[in-house]
Amino acid sequence: MDKIKKRLSFILNHKPVTVEVEPDTLLLDLLRETLGLTGTKRGCGEGECGACTVIINNEAVNACLYPAWKVENCRVLTVEGLGTEENPHPLQEAFLEAGAVQCGFCTPGMLMSSYALLQKTANPAESEVKEAISGNLCRCTGYVKIIEAIRKAAQKMNDPSISKRKEV
Ligand code: FES
Ligand code: FES
Q1: Ligand 1 and 135: CB distance under 6 A
Q2: How far is the CA of 143 from the centre of ligand 2 (A)?
Q3: Are residues 116 and 46 in the same domain?
Q4: pLDDT tens, the chain, 168 aa long
Q5: How far apart are alpha carbons 135 and 157 in whole angstroms?
Q6: Which one, of 163, 154, 101, 94, lies nearest residue 126 by Cα?
Q7: Is 99 in the same domain as 152?
Q8: Of 63, 81, 99, which residue constitutes the final position of a domain?
Q9: What is the count of structural domains for the chain?
Q10: 122 and 155 together in one domain
């Protein structure tokens, strides 16, 4: 028997969307399979690696464990909504400048966890940065350049004149 679908409306990357989901649809599947937003990565699928991190109402969550129906009326931000190649977010600029992107698999999740941090803490200490990305695994970089990038992004966000970003 077909499962009963539920109509779900929320704000995705600054725009309203309405979709139909099954009761057990996970947010990661909704984003990647139904909505085609494949920037959010599927790593472990068990809440252990952080590759699937997105922001819901300013909080970083693991989309691989999050029931899609729970985002009703919420604001969801994925890496696609953070910035573009032409107009990158200061975090994206800083990750590239610091050499914090190697294979890139962890990068979307790292960006979203650090975005959540910088929304709450404009000038995070190294310990706060480490805590914010403690749920995000990176197999390539050894984390040093990632931490450097996040702190550099904080500087850019506090002084927009050193960022290339155009406010839209
Ligand atoms: S894919 Fe979600 S935490 Fe690993
Ligand atoms: S850059 Fe490869 S996993 Fe982090």
Answers
A1: no
A2: 9
A3: no
A4: 677 899 999 999 999 999 999 999 999 999 999 999 999 999 999 999 999 999 999 999 999 999 999 999 999 999 999 999 899 999 999 999 999 999 999 999 999 999 999 999 999 999 999 999 999 999 999 999 999 999 999 999 998 787 767 654
A5: 23
A6: 154
A7: yes
A8: 81
A9: 2
A10: yes
